[in-house]
Queue: 2 jobs
Job 1
Amino acid sequence: MKCNSIVMVKQVPDTSNISGEVMRPDGTVNRAKLPAIFNPDDKVALELALELRDRFGGKVTAITMGPAKAGELLRECLYMGAAIRRPSRAPS
């Protein structure tokens, strides 16, 4: 039995080394000052979906949304073995 999977992936700020430089006066994090990384939980989900595909056959598709640099995330998904899909931007 084939197992087709869709995995939604997202870039998130790397909060492993937050310093005062990235904090705003109101106590929130300035995401623009932190590097973006593959959400670790999403990466685990993608790895599991790829394992299921290898075991049972089928297709794994990774989907994301976000700014243009989210393309880096899709490239990593492609290298891992997933097909990729980036939804078109909604008109503003």
Job 2
Amino acid sequence: MITVSTHILDTALGRPAAGVPVTLDIWSGGTWVPAGGSVTGPDGRSTDLPPLDPDTTATARLVFAVRDYLVASHGQAFFPEVTGRASTTTSRCCWRRSAIPPTEGVRACPRNRPR
């Protein structure tokens, strides 16, 4: 089983970004298929996303819906969402990290560990 967890840090405020919705999608049949969702906790972490099958090669993405958080914390939002994509092989996953530019103030870091 490959577990999927993530965290979001608000670098402008120097704290975790709590309350941000996160969705996990899998690329299948030429389209993104929702696999599950979560919301970041007070520590900016989301650890209850569904696991990925280690025996199947897959392309997955995490979508961070940051607009409401940014408006509430910074008064405006240039980016409504941030996406991080990953390609898995049997027993290994390599996330490509996505980040909102520093002017926006929030960094989204997908993290994945094979177990």
